[in-house]
Each structure stands twice: as structure tokens, then as C-alpha cells.
Amino acid sequence: MSLGAHLKEARRRLIIAVIGLAVGMVVAFFVTDPIIWYITEPIRILDAERGTETPFAQFVFSGVSSAFDLRLRISFAIGLLISAPVWLWQIWAFIMPGLTRKEVRYTISFVAAAIPLFFGGAYVAVLVAPHVIEIMSNFVPEGGVNYFNAKEYYDFIFKFIIVIGVAFVLPVFMVALNFAGLLTGRAMLGGWRWAVLIAALFAAIATPAADIFSMLLLAGILVVLYLAASLLSLLLDRRRRKRTGPDGLPLTEADA
Fold it and tell me: Which pLDDT tens digit goes with each residue over 83-125?
């Protein structure tokens, strides 16, 4: 295909992806109420536990269009998820003709591993987030009221989920680097001390300093994933060495 044909193909697939996203957002707009109710559950629990005559924790909208803006943000996030089969297929259909059969197989394997890991990280974030909010609310002084601005609260929840989800996918990129010959399993395993330190620092940043349990849980999961990626890379390196000779070249039938 010529450059112009490639650009036309990219535009066509982009339009289809955008239409899929728009349809997903419209569908998601009608389910924003239960989502808002779910993510604000920690606020209601806080208010029930510490509120007296004066509410302690409240979910507030500070502007005229704040409620609509929040629903639009949620619709975009959920719509992106709902329409994922559409836009992922458009991306795949655009790049697949330029890949070899081996590259196609590797790409499918990496994506198949990355998707459940991301959602696993998102699930852990959903479990940890209410605990984080509770811990941080303990610093509100006696007589104070904790008002959660809708936009800021949603941004915190959304970014928290994305960051933890992406962190869970990092081992897949490590294995991909091993496939490319840029990183060996021995080098990964040899850097386990740095991995533990980085995981601990990341968990400390992602969770409140006072929430030791959440920090240890997140750091522990990240370390386990790192070690799993290192061991898998070691196995791949060993398998690769069996297929090559002392000079690093692939073995032939004559060598065997």
C-alpha cells in the first residue's frame, strides 16, 4: 500500500473506533448512577461512623455543571471499556498485515496476559481505595467536616485505578524486553533488591503513609509479579540457549 492508502485506512479505522466509543459512552451514561453510588460508598460509611448532628463526610458538587461533568467523565471511562473490542480490533487490523506470523502469535500472547493483569490491578485498587480514604479522613481534626469535591474525588479514584493497573502490567513489558533480547532473566533476578525497593516506594506513594497494610499488600503483589516475570525470562533464556550453538547462532540439523 502507498502512504496515501495507509493514511486513508488509518482514518477509516479511527472513525470506526470513535463511533464505537461514542456508542459506548451513550450506553454508559445511563448506568452512571450505580457507579457513583458505588464509588461514594466509603464517604457514606465515614459519615455513618463519625457523623453526629453535623455530617462529617459529604460528596459535594461545587459548580452548576459539576454533576453533568462527573457523569460525562464516568461515561467516557466506562464507554472506553465497553467499546474496547471495537477500537482494539481496529488497531489490531491496522497493524496485523505488517507483522510476521511469529510476531502475531507473540503479540496475541502479550495482550492476552496484559489485559487480565490490568483488570487484576484495577480490582486491587478498588479494594484498597476505600481503606485509603478512611485512613486519610482520620487526620481531620475534631469538629472538622470532610467535604469531597466530586471532580477531585473522581480524579483520585480514576488515577488510582489506572496507576495500579498499569503497575500490574509492567512484568509483561519485562518479558517482552526479554523476547527482544534486550533484558535477560539473570539480569532481572539479579536486580531483585532494586525491584523490592522500587515496589515499596511506589506502594508508599500510591497509598497513605499511615496505611501500612495497603502499602505492604500492594508492594508484595508487585514483587511477586516481578519475580514471576524474572523466572519466566530465565526459562525462556534457557530454552533459547538450547536452540543456539556456542557462537550464539541457531543450531542446524548438521550440528545436531
Answer: 888 888 888 777 777 767 776 787 777 878 888 888 888 888 8
The residues pairing with 250 across neighbouring beta strands, listed in sequence order, are: 244
Q: 106 — alpha (psi -120 to 50), left (phi > 0) or beta? A: alpha
Sort 36 into a burial class: Cβ within 10 Å, 0-12 / 13-18 / 19+.
Answer: middle
Its pTM stands at 0.72
Tell me the three state secondary structure of residue 58.
strand
Q: What is the DSSP letter of 97?
A: G
- Residue 244 is classified by DSSP as B
Q: Which residues contact 147 (CB under 8 A, 6 or more apart)?
A: 57, 58, 60
| Beta strands at 57-60 and 146-149: parallel, antiparallel or unpaired | parallel
66 Cβ neighbours under 8 A, 6+ residues apart:
150, 151
* CB 233 within 8 Å of CB 195: no
Phi and psi dihedrals of 190, rounded to 5? -65, -25
Q: Could you say which DSSP state residue 49 is in?
A: H
Instruction: Specify whether the CB–CB gap between 180 and 103 falls below 8 A.
Output: no
State the Cα–Cα distance between residues 140 and 178, nearest whole angstrom: 48
